[in-house]
Write a structure and sequence with these properties.
mainly alpha
């Protein structure tokens, strides 16, 4: 095996492991001594942490989950600038690590914040446009899940419009598919009119 190939594999494995770090579960355990996977929606992401523990802990979880996606992609782009597959491969590894965490028996979160981190490192302008689209959808619909799904699918479209490589378009579509898959229960609730609205939630004073 060539040295570079081994290094690439190690980078991919490291990205998956970093992505798998369940910050939401750890924060909940440390600050409130609760298992967030057994509270609220059972998700380890920022929205559930914020709803169950307080908005400040949700913001902390969001930030750390975002960093998990940003750092591997940012680093690989500078260590191996000619490895064009590297950034999208490591981005996918970080996302799947979060969604199927080895620390949680290959269960995990939905990956929206981690995907945002990936896109901020890969294509900051398109990432910010996608984030604005998310905010607009949530404000208009009051459903975070709907904003998450639609904004995830906006990235492949934005990449096509911007003339980004086909590899980026394909990878972003795969990421959107994974995020949609992790939102399958939310999609069912949306279709039945049973999904919880953001502004109607009761927030803890923590």
């Amino acid at each position: 095996m060539k040295a570079y190939t081994l290094i690439h594999i190690l980078f991919a494995a490291a990205s998956f492991t970093v992505g798998a770090l369940p910050f939401g579960k750890w924060i909940s355990s440390l600050v409130a001594h609760v298992d967030i996977t057994k509270r609220g929606s059972g998700n380890i992401g920022a929205a559930n942490v914020a709803r169950e523990l307080g908005i400040q802990w949700g913001i902390m979880t969001l930030t750390l989950d975002l960093i998990k996606g940003f750092v591997p992609v940012f680093i690989i782009g500078r260590v191996f600038p000619d490895w064009h597959l590297g950034p999208v491969l490591l981005g996918l590894c970080a996302l799947t690590g979060h969604q199927f965490s080895v620390f949680l028996g290959f269960k995990g979160g939905k990956g929206v914040a981690t995907a945002l981190g990936v896109y901020l490192a890969l294509a900051p302008f398109q990432a910010l446009v996608g984030l604005c689209f998310f905010v607009v959808i949530v404000v208009l619909s009051d459903f975070v899940s709907l904003g998450s799904i639609l904004s995830a699918w906006s990235l492949p479209i934005l990449f096509v419009i911007a003339g980004k490589p086909a590899l980026w378009v394909s990878a972003s579509a795969l990421m959107a598919g994974l995020i949609s898959f992790r939102h399958k229960d939310n999609i069912r609730r949306l279709m039945r009119g049973e999904e919880r609205r953001w502004r109607k939630r009761k927030w803890p004073v923590a």
